[in-house]
Amino acid sequence: MTINEISFKIQMIKWGIIGCGRIAHRFVQGLREVPGTELVSVWSRRAETVTSFVEQYGGAACASVEELLLSDIDVVYIATLPDSHALYSILALNAGKHVLCEKPAATNLTILNSILEVAQDKNLLFMEGMKPPFFPLYAKLKEYLLIDPIGPVGYVRAGSSVADISKDHPNFSHELIGGSLMQIGIYEAFLAIDWLGATKQVQTMGRFGETGIDMFSIFQTEHDNGYGQFYCGFDLHGKGDALICGTIGHITIHKNWWNPAKATINYLDGHIVEIDEPFTAGGLNYEIAHFCELIRQNKSESPVISHDMSRKMIAMLDEARVQIGLKFDQD
Question: Are 323 and 204 within 8 A, CB to CB?
Fold first, then answer.
């Protein structure tokens, strides 16, 4: 049975996309691999990008966000930069559309709560686009640890610094909510909370660049179940792996840990387990499939990236930003 034949047997989920940047291209690559999905409408703040996007991927080019929200879609994927995530999330929810919003879903906890209030009032699904837990490697690792555990996890270390980004990249824009904490640190906040639980305190140092964003930040955290140490940056070349330590073993998720494909588990008794689980289509297909299944089950929240998880992630970054003095106009 082909994918097209399978898709006719399940509820078709019709998608609209707001934003036509690089992540939107990766998203459509993943969407094409998920049965029962269809790209219907596309709009971007940069009108010149919409025509070429739909020529490449299909769907209808919309002249305004209002036109997109009036089109025959079930869900909106918000692929714009973080400065507008809240605006478009609330517009889409008020239009009766489910929302999958790129990370970070909001600039701060107060704004995130305003989005979640609308989602709950409308009884619609809202999820922040945090991809790592949906990758096959991450799921397989969690399953394996149930039968061969490393003991209670008490320490997590991870980081990435990407030194080859073009200087005109939005990550360097203060106005567009750039900076290493918001663009990279949000991933590390997820990893810390997923393995160590709620954050109790954060200690942060950061170095600023000429555009007013943090070019390199380090932060260490205390959680309900242990400690974390993390770094993120744009002007040093960092490794991009993750270390997760338990009482009788430790895990290395090899680079890039946020697109995980390989992990090594080293145990105190000397045995070593290698887990290799390649991903396909850029990896966003797994997150999309999860989101679509939630819609079909009439769920308003993901059990994996829950509203509480999103709150905890942005709250950690809120505190980190306070400590280094990184403020945005939306604060």
Answer: yes
153-161 and 242-246 beta bridge pairing: antiparallel
- 285: which 2 tokens? 């297909």
Phi/psi of residue 176, nearest 5 degrees: -95, 15
Phi, psi of 141 (to 5 degrees): -60, -50
Q: 3-state SS string over 157-168?
A: EEEEECCCCCCC
**Selection from 158, 179, 89 nearest residue 128 by Cα:** 89
Written as tens digits, the pLDDT of the chain (331 aa) is 444 444 446 789 999 999 999 999 999 999 999 999 999 999 998 888 999 999 999 999 999 999 999 999 999 999 999 999 999 999 999 999 999 999 999 999 999 999 999 999 999 999 999 999 999 999 999 999 999 999 999 999 999 999 988 888 889 999 999 999 999 999 999 999 999 999 999 999 999 999 999 999 999 999 999 999 999 999 999 989 999 999 999 999 999 999 999 999 999 999 999 999 999 999 999 999 999 999 999 999 999 999 999 999 999 999 999 999 999 999 9
Cα dihedral: 82, 86, 87, 90 (round 10): 150
The kind and range of the H/E element at 247 are none
Preceding omega of 298 cis (within 30 degrees of 0): no
The DSSP-derived string for 23-54 is: HHHHHHHHHTTSTTEEEEEEE-SSHHHHHHHH
Q: Is-contact 58 33, C-beta < 8 A?
A: no
What is the longest distance spanned by two Cα atoms in the chain?
62
Under 8 Å CB-to-CB from 207, ≥6 apart: which residues?
A: 214, 215, 216, 217
What pTM was estimated for this model as a whole?
0.94
Q: For residues 97 and 76, is the Cβ–Cβ distance under 8 A?
A: yes
Residues 96, 39 contacting (CB under 8 angstroms): no
Residues 205, 230: Cα–Cα separation, whole Å: 11
